[in-house]
Amino acid sequence: MMSAQLNCWVLLLAAASSVGHAGTDRMLDQAGSRGSGQAAGPRSPGRVQVLRSIAAVPPEIVGELREPIAYVQADNGRYFILDRRGHGVYALDRERTGAWRVVSVGAERGHILEPVGLGLDPVLANFVVVDMPDNRPRLQRFEAGGTPLGGFFLPGSDTEPLTIAGVTVSGPGAFAYTRQTLLVSAADSGALVKVHGMAGEPLRSFGTLRPTGQEGDPEVHRALNAGIPVPAPDGASYFVFQCGVPSFRKYDAGGKLLFERHIEGPEVDALVQALPTTWPRKKTATGRVVPLVVPSVRAAAVDRAGNLWVSLLVPYTYVYNPQGERIRVVQFRGAGILSPTSLYFTNDGRLLVTPGCYEFRP
Description:
By secondary structure, the chain is mainly β. The protein has helices at 21-31, 59-62, 218-223, 269-273, and strands spanning 49-52, 55-56, 68-73, 79-83, 88-92, 99-103, 115-120, 127-131, 138-142, 148-153, 162-164, 167-170, 175-177, 181-185, 191-197, 202-208, 227-231, 237-241, 247-251, 257-262, 281-283, 289-291, 297-302, 308-312, 317-320, 326-333, 337-338, 342-345, 351-354, 358-360.
């Protein structure tokens, strides 16, 4: 496994929301963000570095996509975009002058329905897609042109997903793809992360659930333990909690806890102070009643130096070094201030971000 490429295989997730946009926007307004890509939020009194985009997918291409949720690039220069509401994967040439669909909509093998994540092998330009036909998480592998290479339904994960503001907060949660294994956020199993082989077989699990004070409400307790597993270049793994008090843990290659850090700073003080102690319930499209737990974290990824980037609900991104010390506070600016829903580091160190499909020099 080549460490410089590990985070290139992180699946950047966002699933179909089961709640109305108006209700979601009201909830996010109370937390300091509007849930769209052009985020409004509290002004930071600290030192914030504003990164301005150096490139972007042309608007005539992005405008044809219904909701791009992942934007990645292989070492040969080819880009891929996952369009959630369009139920498709698109390829772009190195110059981003044209785009063409390589995977189409459908529940049958070789097609995708309700996609929630995209992962890439940057060397071979093969990719994986996680989708949710019949609310069952399925992973499929494809070669660069879209020819299916195999796949499986993830065993033991039949919980219907729920997302708010493009972030999965219940159900199968988030995934990370390391070419040989699949790391899955799996609070419903009693562990934070389950590791599967590429045939779907369970290999191991690691990470104890954090105490939430909501152990008597299993749905809320699970949501507050949902998170993003992020492989690190040194063979370790981060786990970034998505809901409740923002924090992350780092585990060694064997699953032993190395440290835990709370995500703290003046940019998130108002968010943390406004965290609820009760949660409204909402009936999903299939009739299931679930708590609406607003995420605190939108996305996370590791750069080539092993630094952890955490995109918060408010439009700031905190960067931590491998020892868990915060070293930067970043805002992204494209057409306006962005609140990233996915982060992807290319082999030459550029950072690709959705929404908007922008590129940055971090």
